[in-house]
Amino acid sequence: MNALRIKKGASRKSAYDLKSTYGDEIETHTLAVLVDNEAGVLARVIGLFSGRGYNIESLTVAETDHAGHLSRITVVTTGTPQVIEQIKAQLGRLVPVHDVHDLTVEGPSVERELALVKVAGVGEKRVEAMRTSEVFRANVVDSTLESFVFEITGAPEKIDAFVEMMRPLGLVEVARTGVAAIMRGN
């Protein structure tokens, strides 16, 4: 009667189940990309990500060699190992790109982020916000009678935890720089 009926015990497969079919899990990688410091380079690099549907979790860019006119783009992205390899290969083929390093797999690295966190509160909530900031080693960079602005640096997970602790204490706003990363050692 119904030709599309699935046999008892058989499972349905979908194109969306490909990662489980091949056993690849989604991973987070930090890529350091050395590029020419000229107009349009950042747009080309980011265009590679958006044009292929790759996600960017964090993005920072700054000039690192004024004399050589070079900038460093640090990108935190997610994907299966095959997608990460594809991203690195495609980045390496762009003309203004000099070097691509996957800091996640090349060895130990240091990742840090800076955030400014505004918290409004009075009374006990204000006191608790100050206590919490001391535990996280956050600095007060602005203070009024009704609010604080804290500066916190550290691993992204530390900043996430601090923000979550401040939420019930009157979190107003968060501004984050994105991840800056560098290899450890020589």
Structural topology:
Blueprint: H1 18-22, E1 27-36, H2 41-52, E2 56-65, E3 70-79, H3 81-93, E4 97-102, E5 109-120, H4 124-135, E6 139-143, E7 147-154, H5 156-166, E8 171-176, E9 180-183
Antiparallel strand pairs: 1-3, 1-4, 2-3, 5-7, 5-8, 5-9, 6-7
Can you put this structure into words, describing what you see?
The chain is an alpha+beta fold and 186 residues long. It folds into two domains: 22-102, 2-Layer Sandwich (Alpha-Beta Plaits), CATH 3.30.70; 109-183, 2-Layer Sandwich (Alpha-Beta Plaits). The chain contains five helices and nine strands. Strands 5, 6, 7, 8 and 9 form a five-stranded antiparallel sheet that branches. A four-stranded antiparallel sheet has the order 2-3-1-4, with helices on one face. It is elongated and about 55 Å long. The model is unreliable at 1-21 (pLDDT under 50).
